[in-house]
Amino acid sequence: MIPKIISWSLKNRYIVLLIAAGLFVWGILNIKKNPIDAIPDLSENQVIVFTEWMGRGPQIMEDQVTYPLVSNLQGIPKVKNIRGTSMFGMSFVYVIFEDDVDVYWARTRVLERLNYAQRLLPNGVTPTLGPDGTGVGHVFWYTLDTKNLDLGEQRALQDWYIKLALQTVPGVAEVASFGGFEKQYQLVVDPVKLQFYNISLMDVMTKVKASNNDVGGRKFEMSDMAYIIRGLGYIKNKDDIESIAVGNYNGIPVRVKDIGTVQMGGDLRLGIFDENGEGEVVGGIVVMRYGENADKVITAVKEKMKDVQKGLPDGVTFKTAYDRSTLIEAAIGNIKVKLIEEMAVVALIVIIFLFHWRSALSIIVQIPITIAVSFILLNLFGISSNIMSLTGIALAIGVIVDNGIIMSENAYRHLSDWQNQHNPKA
Fold first, then answer.
1. Domain total for the chain?
2. Radius of gyration over alpha carbons of the chain, in Å?
3. pTM recorded for the entire structure
4. What span, in angstroms and rounded, lies between the C-alpha atoms of 354 and 351?
5. Is the residue at 159 inside a domain?
6. Rounded CA gap, 170 and 221, in Å?
7. Is residue 308 a contact partner of residue 162, using CB atoms and an 8 Å limit?
8. Is residue 413 one of the residues assigned to a domain?
9. Which domain holds residue 233?
10. Which of 307, 392, 399, 411 has a CA 20 to 30 Å removed from the CA of 417?
11. Residue 401 and residue 405: Cα distance in Å, rounded?
12. What pLDDT, on the 0 to 100 scale, is given for residue 425?
């Protein structure tokens, strides 16, 4: 088979050159399409199921949430392993799939099974899927640099403006907020007053929840005009909460302010986020979607941040805490320089030792063509350009040249033997 291929190639040299040129151009196009990252993604092919049930201990979470979910997710096809973790108020289930499974197919199958497992969980408990990112998906961290806003205002700005804007960037799976205080209205009830007015804590919760709502009615026509009837009931400040009636005492309405106090505060925190020992900060973590180009996503995020900056209050700016593009550019740039240096040194050595320009050219031209074709295979198997893959290509240059030298020397020996046999006097 190989002799026939060699014979055909010798007889059709222009076709072989045309095929080589086509592969080289195709490889150059694949180099531009290949994702770039500093490190290879060796994380497991997993889908995370997150469930929140605040106020419950780890043992209750394990018995009533984690165990039912793990038991019912066992039958999903192509699953290697399922791991469950329970903690105070939260449950995490990690569904590990085989490496060749498409991540979005896996998420769909997990979501289908969750619809069935929902009926086994307590009322009001709803499991959700984690972001479609990987273990190395945290590509960009930022903080807010401001002196005029407190931590609660900064967190509100991050959650309700910045986060929503950055999540629209292509390739971003999630923008996770950290630091600061999540603002909330806190109702501090007096148990003695509850007992005096004969009102239960559940009554207070139900009435406050029901009073924070808009209701709609029907429309009616009057004087050839149509009017929409609706009731506006959303809470706007703490005075609205204090005025909510939660019961009656001898025909007199009992309001929230009669059985407790309402204050603006922050949600329970399990830690703080400090920057360089200079104090607390608020910011976000940009999580890249599975299989995306890290360098391209970071560039798009930075461009979006410039647009978001225009809508921020005066004195509020972004401060970069972690930027993987710096590591990517430094690592890939270093590998590219070493790759070019290696190609130049190898070409020089081949020319010196062979001392025949046609033979040397036939060997040297194989290097860029083989490197270009390797990127076709990288894209085919979903491998990004990183330190490991480019280093492997650099190490393979010696093998490429070695094969060419062996073929050239073998051809020279056969030609020499043929010439000696047919023209011994020469």
1. 3
2. 34
3. 0.78
4. 5
5. no
6. 48
7. yes
8. yes
9. 183-266
10. 399
11. 6
12. 57
